[in-house]
UniProtKB/TrEMBL annotation:
GO terms for molecular function: C-C chemokine binding; C-C chemokine receptor activity; scavenger receptor activity. It comes from Coregonus suidteri. The keyword Membrane applies. SUPFAM superfamilies: Family A G protein-coupled receptor-like. This is G-protein coupled receptors family 1 profile domain-containing protein. PANTHER family: ATYPICAL CHEMOKINE RECEPTOR 4 (PTHR10489:SF910), CELL ADHESION MOLECULE (PTHR10489). The chain crosses the membrane at residues 79-101, 113-133, 153-174, 195-216, 246-265, 285-303. Keywords: Cell membrane, G-protein coupled receptor, Glycoprotein, Membrane, Receptor, Transducer, Transmembrane, Transmembrane helix. It is found in: Cell membrane.
Length: 404
């Protein structure tokens, strides 16, 4: 029995390595084949070397076809991506509009981080229509867009996670300042004067993690369609690529999660020490913190767990069954879509739950409504003057006609 793994969507470097089991009599040999999502020149060389063995092509009895996985991606991904784009663009655009309209919202570091977070979310969401079209039709947009969209996806996805960690650190330091305690070195770094440097460092780290996608992404022809994927040179072994995956999981999930848990635990301790008369506000604030951490875990943990499994499998080839390979492919699609929903939830969790931002939104809506009413009032006055003027002319004409 032989099977070969294919993956429908350009999932960057997370594609599984296909395994082929071939039986001839009592003997069983196992070969490694590059999948369409994890291809290197070295793998191509090994593949042709394996064909020179004594086993002929007739020894292959069954091939693990992934047509059903590609069909699932073509139906599932466009629907989810379209919903994410509509909701995420509306929420994050409103956040940026409020920050541009109200200069007071740019006073603290948290607000600056949230503005950068909205920008990263928007740039990430703008790549989704390209991946939706790729899932349905294949990649028909050329090599430059393949490199640009792949790098933009990786950079902004990592940047969003790091910015969430920065927000939690700044909130923790704010609670420490409220109690009058020493903030240490962290407090000297996270100041309004160094806010630009911190944001620049976050974007720089995200760019470094997205640099391999920019350099190695290319368009390859498969049996059915063109695919935008990362193709590594032979000098980069599978272990190196797996290490890149592990680094992405660490910096894009594990480190932000640990930072958030540690910082929000400190904020929770400060809230519990508040006096009893503010018990209601304290409980509401603690519930918000639990929701923020819980949503992050629910949306990001499944995707990163699958990503780690695929990275381990690319080195040790643990998946040797066609059904398991298909299930892993579908799990990667579903969990990555779940992780992308966090871009839609960020405005709700970090901005709209804040009473100050809601007040600014209400003020802006009230000012807009007043301007609209004034414009309508001016138009109605103009129309009324025009109508009265015309009616006066008509009356005067009629009066002159029926004059005695």
């Amino acid at each position: 029995m032989c099977y070969e793994s294919e993956f429908p969507k350009a999932q960057r470097r997370t594609g599984p390595v296909a395994i082929a089991h071939c039986r001839r009599g009592d003997k069983q040999r196992r070969y490694r084949y590059p999948s369409t999502m994890d291809l290197t020149e070295e793998d191509d060389y090994d593949y042709h070397d394996n064909l020179t063995l004594n086993y002929s092509y007739e020894d292959y009895h069954t091939v693990c076809e992934k047509a059903d996985v590609r069909s699932f991606a073509g139906l599932f991904l466009p629907v989810v991506y379209a919903a994410c784009v509509v909701v995420g663009l509306a929420g994050n655009s409103l956040v940026l509009a409020m920050y541009a309209y109200h200069k007071r919202l740019r006073r603290t570091m948290t607000e600056v981080f949230l503005a950068h977070l909205a920008v990263a979310d928007l740039l990430l969401l703008l790549t989704l229509p390209f991946w939706a079209a790729d899932a349905v039709l294949g990649w028909e947009l050329g090599l430059p867009l393949c490199k640009l969209v792949s790098a933009c996806y990786a950079i902004n996805f990592t940047c969003c996670m790091l910015l969430l960690a920065c927000v939690s650190i700044d909130r923790y330091l704010a609670s420490v300042r409220a109690e009058g305690r020493n903030q240490g070195r962290l407090g000297r770094v996270f100041t309004r004067a160094h806010c630009g440097k911190v944001c620049l460092g976050v974007w720089a780290v995200a760019f470094l993690l997205g640099l391999p996608d920019l350099l190695f992404s290319t368009v390859r022809e498969t049996s059915e369609r063109r695919v935008c994927m990362a193709v590594y040179p032979a000098s980069l072994a599978l272990e190196v690529k797996a290490c890149l995956e592990v680094v992405e999981v660490l910096l894009g999930f594990l480190v932000p999660l640990l930072v958030m848990m540690w910082c929000y635990a400190g904020v929770g301790r400060v809230l519990r020490r508040l006096p009893e008369e503010s018990r209601g506000r304290r409980q509401r604030a603690i519930r918000v913190l639990l929701v923020v951490v819980g949503v992050f875990v629910v949306t990001q943990l499944p995707y990163n767990a699958v990503k780690m499994c695929r990275a381990i499998n690319s080195v040790y080839t643990l998946v040797t069954h066609c059904g398991v390979s298909k299930a892993l492919d579908r799990a990667a699609q579903v969990t990555e879509s779940l992780a992308l929903t966090h871009c839609c939830l960020n405005p709700l969790l970090y901005v709209f739950l804040g009473s100050s931002f809601r007040q600014y939104v209400l003020k802006a809506a009230k000012a807009f409504g007043e301007r609209t009413r004034r414009r309508r009032g001016v138009q109605r006055e103009d129309e009324g003057m025009e109508i009265s003027f015309n009616s006066h002319n008509a009356t005067s004409q009629e009066t002159s006609t029926f004059s005695i």
